[in-house]
Specification:
CATH class: Alpha Beta
Distance between the termini: 31 Å
Structural class: alpha/beta
CATH superfamily: Aldolase class I
Radius of gyration: 19 Å
Order of helices and strands: EHEHEHEHHEHEHHEEEEEEH
Largest sheet: 12 strands, mixed
Strand order of the largest sheet: 7-8-9-6-5-4-3-2-1-10-11-12
Number of domains: 1
Strand content: 15-25%
Length: 325
Amino acid sequence: MSLALNDPQGRQFRYLRLSVTDVCNYRCAYCLPQGYKKCQTSPELTLSEIARLLRAFSVLSFKKLRLTGGEPTLRDDLPEIIREASSSGFQVGLTTNGYRLAQKVRRLKESGLSLLNVSLDSMSPQRFKMVTGKDEFTNLQRDLDEALALGFDRIKINTVLLKGLNDDEFPQFLEYVKQRPITLRFIELMPTEQNKEFFHQHHTRSDLFVKELKSLGWKENSKEANSGPATEYSHEEFLGKIGFISPYAENFCAQCNRLRVSARGDLRLCLFGKGEVSLRDYLQDDESLKELVGFIQNTLHLKPVSHSLHEGDYGDMRTLSTYGG
């Protein structure tokens, strides 16, 4: 029997973002500028624990799963995780930095992956290296085109808007999707404990880019049911689409439909809230399924109405690598 998961505001949740590792091999300036440093003592969730977690969220009518990190492709058993999720009825997506993507993506698709999101924060090889700490721009461009040829249900590019680093590349990003059926989404930089100074230097609002896009003839698309927070635009002369994720926009949280679980089984109700609750004790045997479902239902009543970014409060989020944004 499937159950619906609703919070006191009437928002329905059907989308789970699961971090499978907080390890990352990039050094993105807005996330891990000094590189990954291990600070957790408990191990990551095992495949069997993940299977039990997914079973519980499936009972709660969750249909969409996004695997994040860190960098999720660093987990050797990622294909098995995808296969388990797909066989449990989830539409499975993956967010990745795209490192050596062509070597991995075919097997991941064969395991059941249908949605692919890849980070691309500059159309300049030099700036790409400056932002990510990796000289991988050319390889990523090639690998993305190879992934396109595999016929994924949807491929998206994630681009963090950075004042003074990539905000002048808007025309190049538009040109990139002209002949590619990709949705390129600009994401406003979000503050964390570790990037406060960087945020103040490089945060820029998406409003001006939306205005420019509309002046070029792009039209806002109607939102699909259970879609994410992005507002997307299309143009008759472009195969691809452009989207914006604007956490400072009015009523941004009113459309929230997702929950997040860390690589160690911690449920986080709001990315920029305070605290999380551990689900791990309920993931040790199959007999705890009913208790786990009930615990998630009861915990959802603690979900805040909205984040408090407008007040300069980003909760206790130390780094986005813990939950993958």
